[in-house]
Amino acid sequence: MLHADKSVLLRELKSIIIKYLPSDPMRNNQLSACLYDIYNNEEWLALHAEVEESIFIPAIKWVERKTRQNDVSAKISSMINQNPDNSDALSDREKDVIVSLVQGMTNKEIADHLCISTNTVITHRRNIARKLQIHSPAGLTIYAIVNHLVDISSVRL
């Protein structure tokens, strides 16, 4: 729930308490004390919201960005440090599909280029993603460059 929503709810609660204050002095004192606490907590809530929005939220966003960058860096490092024989896990045809994909071809274009069906291209891509745990064209591009399947100068930006 947002801080603004909580402020609205607190305002409604104060209005209800004020509207229905009983004439019974004992319960009236209890509700007055409760109302006093609500007013005091409302000020604290506003300060809390200000600290959260100006300090905590930006800090968490910064940590999330760094974590995402570190995840990408770790994946790239693991690809660079892989045993070169690991690229043998891919068949020659799967390597051809990666190279074609890196060159910017669609599944249909890859199929025409390699003289195979589009379904076969899709199957190869599924197998590549499963074997390498790489599911994006950008990741496959990095993999292809690191494993010398393509020259970085041939990659279209």
Can you give a write-up of this model?
The chain has helices spanning 3-19, 25-80, 92-102, 107-114, 118-132, 137-146. The model has no long low-confidence stretch (mean pLDDT 80). The protein is rod-shaped. 11% of the residues are buried. The chain is mainly alpha-helical and 157 residues long. The two termini are 43 Å apart. It contains 6 helices and no strands.
Properties at a glance:
mainly alpha; 75% helix; single chain; 157 residues
Topology:
Layout: H1 3-19, H2 25-80, H3 92-102, H4 107-114, H5 118-132, H6 137-146
Helix pairs in contact: 1-2, 3-4, 3-5, 3-6, 4-5
Count of helical segments? 6
Order of helices and strands: HHHHHH
What is the terminal separation in angstroms? 43 Å
Low-confidence stretches: none
The quaternary organization reads as single chain
Structural classification = mainly alpha
So what's the overall shape? rod-shaped
Fraction of residues in β-strands: under 5%
CA-based gyration radius: 30 Å
Average pLDDT works out at 80
User: What share of residues is helical?
Assistant: over 70%
Major β-sheet annotation: none
Number of strands: 0
